[in-house]
Amino acid sequence: MNELEAIKDHHDSLPGPAPEVTARARVLLAEEAGAEPRRLTVAAPGRGRPARSPRRPLRVSRLAMRAGAAVGLAAAVTAGLVLVRGGHDSAPFGTPPASAAELLRHAASVAAREDVRPGPGQFVYVDQRNVMFVSSPEGAYTQEWRREVWMPAGDPGKALTRSTYGRTRLTGGGGPAHVQPPGTVEYQRAGQCHESPLALLSQATDLPADPDQALARIRRDAEVFVRSDQRRRGETDLGQSEIDMRVEKIVGGLLLKLAENPLTPSQTRATVFGALSKMPSATVVPDLTDPAGRHGVGASLRYESPGTWERGELIFEPVTYRFLGYRSWIGRQEGGQVKEIPSSSMAVMAVKVVGSMPKVPKDAAKPMFC
């Protein structure tokens, strides 16, 4: 029996790791492949550092070092060891976050490494599953649809989105007058409609990388807007508490929009997650479900309005802290009570680089909500 067969037999005889350990290990392995190997620490008491072979050259290629880290990580996971990630917010695999701040800091670290950059002739492809909740005098209903986005490298003006509408479900009142039948496919080019799913918020392009500085700028800009809007409305008796409430609503709403927009650059999203971790109203929700039916851990942010409130929930994979999706809620006064109703939800199914995008059919109609 050669050495490889002996290793395989030993591997097969060991108990398998828990699913959450394996999932977390895959993510950290991918992260560490692009980082310095010394950032990965294996907590294995009683084992010293192996001596370097005198015949091996002192200079080791980065590729070899990464391969060594990969082998060590795989062996440690298989053996059921506890692996600890070095640096800030270190925690064992599978450890539930103690707070929303901790969860969002982990999510920021993961987002910073998910940098998807297309090359010449390539496209960023985003696949989303959405649910829209509508309440109107005509009735209340929900509609599901799939949204696919192709964003070419260096030329967002040629981006394309394709929406495929799914089922509609009535939740109250009569049938809606304006709704797309299931199976309807719409194409929308960048700039074709005023409200565009291809639009990227202007704040995403020049936001400071430091979360504290980013939050300070957003809050400062929000206060300037609220003060200006106060003068425009002639609201001379507006108290400081009301001004603060309006400012926090703008801050929270903008951060959530930047976080859930799949076209937000990964580094900016990492900054946004870091800024959200500093919001005092953020709370952790142990179990949330996105529109795709995936369970995750969530960070909930609530901001007040006169007589009502709004709440956004960011959903993350519970072990890897990868961003899964978003849900939003609105509180409304009904019959003397504030009732919570859903507003929208979205699941990110895929974000990757592709080599082509579909052609728009010549008979494609203008989008209904355009």
UniProtKB/TrEMBL annotation:
<dbReference type="InterPro" id="IPR047789">
    <property type="entry name" value="CU044_5270-like"/>
</dbReference>
<feature type="transmembrane region" description="Helical">
    <location>
        <begin position="63"/>
        <end position="84"/>
    </location>
</feature>
<keyword id="KW-0472">Membrane</keyword>
<feature type="region of interest" description="Disordered">
    <location>
        <begin position="1"/>
        <end position="21"/>
    </location>
</feature>
<protein>
    <submittedName>
        <fullName>CU044_5270 family protein</fullName>
    </submittedName>
</protein>
<feature type="compositionally biased region" description="Basic and acidic residues">
    <location>
        <begin position="1"/>
        <end position="13"/>
    </location>
</feature>
<keyword id="KW-0812">Transmembrane</keyword>
<keyword id="KW-1133">Transmembrane helix</keyword>
<feature type="region of interest" description="Disordered">
    <location>
        <begin position="36"/>
        <end position="56"/>
    </location>
</feature>
